[in-house]
């Protein structure tokens, strides 16, 4: 007994003697991450300009062979540096410079090195991940739980999108990552009981903003969510048991040694760092070479106005003519083409499109055994044999890409399906859009034929419910600051119809202005944009609006935050080549009057200003940029403004 007490005493001494606290600072010294093993509990905290943004928060993993969230010590630490310039033609920024300081902390238990936690800190982002060591003779593990948490300061407010439960909603297709955001909400809640979908935005009182997300997720791990309900502490959560019809595992497996995805924290005193961050791409690698140079661009799709019944040969042909007229590069042929058009006629449409320089995208159902969505084509994309046979056929008739819908959650096996579809599609030169799907996590850089994910309450809801139209502006002012900052967003909007009906008489009434529609085409970023315009817009929409949409780009070289607040208004600038577009929308009752300072414009230069009057009637005029590089804009509720060089 005496010996036992003595050894207890010794280990307590060893524990406190080994307590280590180490810091890593951003290159400008403003962001400081402190990592510690105090009391045997791995933890980190983050300050910006000396102010707590993330208070002491847990780190650690529970693996199938041990609990490595406690009794841990920092056995070793090594400083590392990341400096890189890379190019990305399908995201919000084409040339990206990464400059980050890092430290790799090796955590041990009972003298055995278990995992490294690798931190990098740039002037706007903190990222970290775990690399689990092999423990001879063990070369694989199951990650039972990740303890990683994010503890915010008291007074922090939240801008979060609740995760929906599994196997619910339309044809048991949820979670489909398309619930509404709650803005300016209190901490301590847990959404609808299932946490929140990434990315998650927090406001640290009047001190600044924090965006939490993850990146580098592929078929070697699961996608995660953020769990709340514990005061200001939020934790990483694995997928829900019921996803994929209750099959497959909520816990990911790792071959050892290997790393988890990156946990990312973007922070700043304003929303600029959040809007301009490239953290989703900075720490991931391209996973295969592109099989060809992929062409992005604009397109039209009948489904958003015409729904399932209009996926017919005649209507799609009409949309090819419309895209050609609009100088759009594609038409997206949506659900049910397999039965309502047929493969032979699809080839005819593809040939007809070719004669007009309009390529086709084809829609597919992803299922499978994980939902009841009846729309075809079904049971092709979930299987390697049927999928590759279909892709070979698509390649033979010159199809540009696919839109695959109705995925079944974030389990590792589902992430493998996303990756398999992307890799196979690259073999056949096809771009990939995912719909009814999870958030893209660095995929623009990892998979060169990736175009976009939905993972947002997208334009289809405007066709489904008038209340969605009534709230369109409110929702649209959130996405540029949250969902769209970490990845391309397939929103499918910019309607110029007055009504969501094929005759433009019936259907839900659009409440937003035409200039709002133009502004959204700039605010919402995706390298492939299928706009919700219809052939009748050539005669019933204002000429200046149609002309704007004929010329708006979908690939951008730079993005700048100008002004805004999620749920109220958004003003964002995007550059393509040497031309800037500055777009604004307003969801507040009061008309917004802003004297924008725009350093990207030259004093005295003439620019075009698209704007609305009080009755939301739009017009365009030439204006001169002031000597102070300022432009005055007035944006009524549900209206927009766009400045174009
Ligand atoms: Ca959807």
Describe the structure.
This protein is of the alpha+beta class and 645 residues long. Among the domains are: 20-282, Distorted Sandwich (Beta-galactosidase, Chain A, domain 5); 456-487 and 502-525 and 556-645, Immunoglobulin-like, CATH 2.60.40.1180. The protein has 16 helices and 36 strands. The strands form six sheets. Strands 7, 8, 9, 10, 13, 14, 15, 16, 20 and 21 form a ten-stranded antiparallel sheet that branches. β8 and β9 form a beta hairpin. α5 runs parallel beside α7 and α8 (384-396) runs parallel beside α9 (412-427). The longest helix has 17 residues, at 2-18. The model is unreliable at 1-17 (pLDDT under 50). The chain binds calcium ion (CA). Calcium ion binds next to loops.
Explain the layout of strands and helices.
Layout: H1 2-18, E1 21-25, E2 31-36, E3 43-48, E4 51-58, E5 61-63, E6 66-68, E7 73-87, E8 95-109, E9 112-121, E10 125-132, E11 140-146, E12 149-152, E13 156-160, E14 182-186, E15 200-204, E16 209-215, E17 225-230, E18 233-237, E19 253-255, E20 258-259, E21 262-268, H2 272-276, H3 279-282, E22 297-300, H4 303-306, H5 313-326, E23 330-333, H6 337-340, H7 343-355, E24 359-365, H8 384-396, E25 401-405, H9 412-427, E26 431-434, H10 443-446, E27 450-453, H11 460-464, H12 466-470, H13 472-476, H14 514-523, E28 528-531, H15 537-540, H16 543-551, E29 558-565, E30 569-576, E31 579-586, E32 592-597, E33 606-612, E34 618-624, E35 630-635, E36 640-644
Parallel strand pairs: 22-23, 22-28, 23-24, 24-25, 25-26, 26-27
Antiparallel strand pairs: 1-2, 2-3, 3-4, 4-12, 5-6, 5-11, 7-8, 8-9, 9-10, 10-20, 10-21, 11-19, 12-18, 13-14, 13-15, 15-16, 16-21, 17-18, 29-30, 30-31, 31-36, 32-35, 33-34, 33-36
Helix pairs in contact: 5-7, 8-9
The protein binds calcium ion.
